[in-house]
Write a structure and sequence with these properties.
Blueprint (H helix, E strand, L loop, with lengths): L1 E8 L2 E8 L7 E11 L17 E8 L12 E5 L8 E5 L3 E3 L6 H5 L2 H14 L6 E5 L6 H10 L3 E6 L2 H9 L9 E2 L9 E6 L3 H7 L3 E9 L12 H6 L3 E4 L7 H12 L7 E6 L2 H4 L2 H4 L4 E5 L9
Parallel strand pairs: 8-9, 8-11, 9-10, 11-12, 12-13, 14-15
Antiparallel strand pairs: 1-2, 3-4, 3-6, 3-15, 4-5, 5-7
Helix pairs in contact: 2-3
């Protein structure tokens, strides 16, 4: 059976038809119906021999050989380092979870990379109830989930944004009250944080460092600004501030199930923009398709697509 997938070729994303994905007997075969775009994906050096993309949701069409996973017809969300932007995806049981009733497939597709990163970053910081956490990029895919999960952990959360439009987006979507949100320009070095989760990097991180308490940790989750920053490591050492990178890419099934359960219970809201048909990924620069929250796309299952 021929299927359509999106590959990166010569710095362009293109549709290409070919056979279905290679599948281990222990894998599940999923018919993909929604995918999402993450802020880091435009900058990935994708392997030209496999479909691009990290996040996808869909329906199981072939179960694993031992029938120990989801049954045929079950709705699932999947994660992997590639292979999402395809009409079919083969995925191990370790990297998928069933989507609960009441959770939309597009919402599920928006969750894996952003949700897993947010959840695991909070764990890595290791803060305890009542401690103060600053979150940059709070209106982004990862950031808007971090601020909710951190609040669920009873942390004292300060969302940090770079524009009034981002502040208004958080307020309008009832994620945080206005008095808790700070523009980068409003940071006060006398108001210290016990931990920082930074998605932006560059000058934003530079403005934030003086507000980090001695002995605290700054966890680098991304660098969406794509801007450089020079840091005085002697100053960091004197204040015993740890500047470390997030790198937890362990198998995802347990944490995906946890995140989906939070969504189903109304304890976590994944805010999405409908990007329409997935052909947009081949027509426009990916950076132009990234919005506040997450952008999702519908995967057409027309066998003639891309001819």
């Amino acid at each position: 059976m021929s299927i359509t997938s999106i590959y990166k070729r010569d710095d362009r994303f293109e549709f290409e038809q070919g056979p279905g994905p290679e599948r281990d007997k222990s894998d599940v075969l999923v018919r993909v119906d929604h995918i999402s775009l993450n802020g880091g994906e435009p900058n990935v050096s994708w392997d030209a021999t496999v479909p691009a993309g990290w996040d996808a949701s869909g329906v199981v069409v072939e179960s694993d050989s031992r029938a120990s996973g989801p049954t045929i017809g079950a709705r699932v969300v999947t994660w992997g380092f590639s292979g999402a932007w395809s009409q079919q995806r083969s995925v191990s049981l370790d990297n998928l979870a069933e989507v609960p009733d009441g959770v939309d497939s597009a919402i599920a597709a928006a969750l894996p990379v952003a949700g897993l990163t947010a959840l695991r970053a909070i764990r890595q910081l290791g803060l305890v109830e009542g401690q103060r956490i600053a979150v940059t990029g709070a209106s982004g895919g990862v950031g808007h989930l971090v601020v909710q999960l951190a609040r669920n952990c009873n942390l004292d959360v300060t969302p940090i944004v770079r524009s009034e439009a981002s502040r208004h987006w958080l307020i309008e979507n009832d994620l945080f009250p206005e008095h808790d949100i700070r523009l980068v320009s409003e940071l006060d070095p006398t108001h210290l944080f016990d931990g920082v989760l930074d998605v932006v990097g560059g000058p934003t991180l530079g403005r934030l460092l003086p507000t980090v308490a001695p002995g605290a940790t700054v966890l680098l989750v991304g660098g969406s600004s794509r801007e450089h920053l020079s840091v005085d490591t002697g100053w960091l050492s004197d204040r015993r501030i740890s500047l470390i990178s997030f790198n937890n890419y362990a198998t995802a099934s347990t944490d995906l199930a946890l995140l989906l359960d939070l969504v189903a219970q109304g304890k976590l809201r994944v805010l999405t923009t409908d990007g329409g048909d997935w052909s947009a990924l081949t027509h426009k620069p990916l950076q132009e398709l990234i919005t506040r929250g997450k952008t999702t796309f519908t995967v057409a299952n027309d066998p003639d697509l891309g001819r």
